[in-house]
Amino acid sequence: MKQKGLIFNLLSIPVDIIAWIGAYLLAYYLRSQIDPLPVSYVWPFSDYLQFVITLVPFIFATMTLEGLYNFRYPKRGFGQFSSIFISATAGVMYVVLWVFFTRNFFFSRLLIIYAWILSIVFIIVGRWLLDISKKILYRYKIGLRRVIILGPRNNALSLALPLNINPIYGFKVVGIISNDIINDEAVDYLGRYENIDDILDHHKVDDIFVSDPDLNQDRTLALSEKARDKKISFHLTPSALQVGSRKFATSTIAGLPIIEILETPLEGWANIVKRILDLIGSLLFIIFFSWLYIIVAIAVKLTSKGPIIYKDKRVGMAGVFNLYKFRTFKEEYCTGREYGGEEAEVLEDKIISEKNTRTGPIPKIKDDPRVTSIGNFLRKTSLDELPQFFNAFLGDMSIVGPRPHRPKEVAKYKTKHKKLFVVKPGITGLAQISGRSDLDFDEEANIDIYYIENWSIWLDAQIGLQTIAAVLKTRGAY
Q: Is the pTM of the predicted complex or chain greater than 0.70?
């Protein structure tokens, strides 16, 4: 198997070690030279440095066991952070164990705390800088792996075009092998399936991506063996496995290799962390903007009769729940038994048939006649959504996730759309910062499915920041 690009993975080892040592050295300097708290005894620097270097093999072994040097499938996002956190914590434990068993006097407990925090920060920053360097080299087409894609026209092009447009993925598409004739200036057509031997003989290739759901098992096995013989990495895309998920986990049961299809990385501890962040974030938001809640509530009450909060039935991960919004419709036009009832439903269907600006099961109405005098402003600025932070606090929703829809809209979902229920619905989401109401529902669903399959804390943070800009621009909001 060719290992072009392996240099980037190998470099992560000395970068991590240098970052870890640097953190402990800076901790020594801070405690012995800068920290105003008195210290009765200070290790000589040479003895301290020797001690730190002695721990390096243990740190390297820990980081290796945590999967930080898995060259084939490197950890990213929350998985990488958790492994770095565990490794840095293990480094501190090695120090504590050494002090306990040798009964030597270690001059400062505070130094250990400094070293722990700094080692986490330094390793993360070091890997971030290495990743930026790698992407810069990729942009200049240095170190790219040469790949051939095999599959029907649409499947092959849907993978080839993004790889060609974005070299930061680390691949250069040599061409496509397909039984469909492909005439696309951006990608070379290399020939049909039966010509694969000649094609591989005439082209230098590092990877083959198979994206054909109709390829039978015998043909797939033959291709994998051919790739193995030529030292070419062999990959199957989800479409080739006839599944829609992009995440897989492998294990062995009774001696047999088993592939588990993972719908989302948002499982286990990641789910717990996200829930904690939702609790803290929603509570802080409600407290900090309590004055704004009061102002909007007064405005709603003074401009139209009826309740301030509108409870709308929506479908989420755990079933139907009440989504809270500041009321923007006149009470008699609000759907629901406690509001306008059946007459409001009939009117809504009539308005949708006349004014719907969107394709798919989720309608969008521009210049809705049911809106109150303050309602247009609240909807345009998304202030009507503020009560949903109570939904996030209670656990019905998350701050970031796919937007929830009504039961009658969910009834029109296609099978692939039901993947949206794998995670909790959100107040904002990737689709909201990508176009809001300008998107067709299929486009919105595809974007949200991408979010589900590629979730990370960093992605949530990015969406949160970009939501502020999207709300200020009020693009696609009505």
A: no
